Amino acid sequence: MKPVVGATPKVVKSEQEWRRQLSPEEYAVLREAGTERPFTGEYTDTKTEGVYECRACGAELFRSDTKFESHCGWPSFYAPSESDNVLLREDRSMGMVRIEVLCGTCHSHLGHVFEGEGYPTPTDQRYCINSVSLRLIPSP
Fold first, then answer.
1. What is the Cα–Cα distance from 61 to 31, expressed in whole angstroms?
2. Contact (CB, 8 A) for 31 and 55
3. What is the β-pairing status of strands 134-138 and 86-91?
4. Known catalytic residue: 128?
5. Which of 54, 57, 106, 128 is catalytic?
6. Which positions fall inside the MsrB domain (predicted)?
7. Cα(21)–Cα(11) distance, integer angstroms
8. What are the tens digits of pLDDT across the range 82-107?
9. Nearest one of 107, 106, 73, 64 to 88, comparing CA atoms
10. So where are the chain's domains?
11. Residue 129: is it exposed, middle or buried by C-beta count within 10 angstroms (0-12/13-18/19+)?
């Protein structure tokens, strides 16, 4: 995983520690910037109210009240719970320029953010996030 310029993670572990903590699929997405197959993630269609945390470190990332149906195959949110809970960096992989979304606490890969797609949301942004990078904590 490329380092994030100018930012130091608050949670630092060796890759060996991450491998012990995460399942192979979680490791491939969170630490190697992989992507789960569309329409296969556990939170793609979830409507449960609660908070979505980083599966690697437990940091709060998104809240269910910002989740919306984008029909893209991955959970979509129009804003993080706090702006510093995620980091954004340019991603030039796969022959295109995108904006990668990382956990602001441990710098694990979450997905990508897209703008200007015409969704009826307050921000006109779609944080397209891998389910495997999240853990939903339902509201009481």
1. 17
2. no
3. unpaired
4. yes
5. 128
6. 15-139
7. 13
8. 878 899 998 888 788 899 999 999 99
9. 107
10. 15-138
11. buried
